[in-house]
Amino acid sequence: EASDSSSASPPSSSASAPSAPAPPTIINFDNAFPGRVLRKPLYARSTFPRPLTIQSMYTSDDRMVPELEVTQVPPNVETLIGHLAFDTSRVSAEENYLSDATFAGSANLKDNPWGDLTRLHVKALKRRDLMWESVLTRGLTEVRATVTVHTDITVGALLQATGSLQRPSVVPHQHLNFSLVQVAMPTTQHVLIHNPADSPLAVRL
After folding, report:
1. pLDDT tens digits, 42-56
2. What is the tens place of the pLDDT at every residue in 13-34?
């Protein structure tokens, strides 16, 4: 029985070749949402005596995106071959609970981000809430995918990738306490805003 093998894995763990079955390596992502893309490095090591060529890499879920940057893996050297991206926006508009098409719609939020808020905005926001509730009810917050790697020597080296969907909030502190105030004496509290997305955020109160 041949003892040579190949694997693709993060630096902290390794995956055995198909000739020596073992539990696959798992890549765990933090919580994500449409508008925030997470990435983790992909490493490969080959114990074959000659360089190994990665021919293809694909996943079982479109939200897990392999980004292959290096295709040649030298013998017995742990090599950074690319990254695995967790992009939760890669779904249909009906499944994207934060998409512009769903939220803005006839409210025209995207084209006029600084205009007055209207009842259409409230209606669009409620529609977002309903979509997120549907995701929770159907148990779709957990994302699991299999990453398959084909090389010129081995076929079907496997990794597992997991991640979770979340509903982001731009207000880290949702309770303002004015304590005891005097009549006719205005008191001010600051509203802190945090943008967890990868792109700028337009905010109105």
Report:
1. 998 888 898 989 999
2. 333 333 323 345 889 999 999 9
Q: Let me know: does 39 contact 85? Beta carbons within 8 Å.
A: yes
**Cβ proximity of 34 and 43 under 8 Å:** no
Three-state DSSP state, 161: strand
Q: Name beta bridge partners: 83.
A: 41, 67
Q: What Cα–Cα distance (Å) separates residue 100 from each residue in 57, 126, 198?
A: 31, 14, 15
Half-sphere CA count of 182, side-chain side, radius 13 A: 2
All residues at 6 or more sequence positions from 18 whose CB lies less than 8 Å from its CB, including other chains: 154, 155, 156, 157
Distance CA 146, CA 144 (A): 7
Q: Which of 178, 175, 146 is nearest to 61 (CA)?
A: 146
Region class of 108: left (phi > 0), else alpha (psi between -120 and 50), else beta: left
Q: Please state the pTM of the whole predicted model.
A: 0.76
The CA distance from 125 to 103, in Å, is 6
Distance CA 190, CA 161 (A): 40
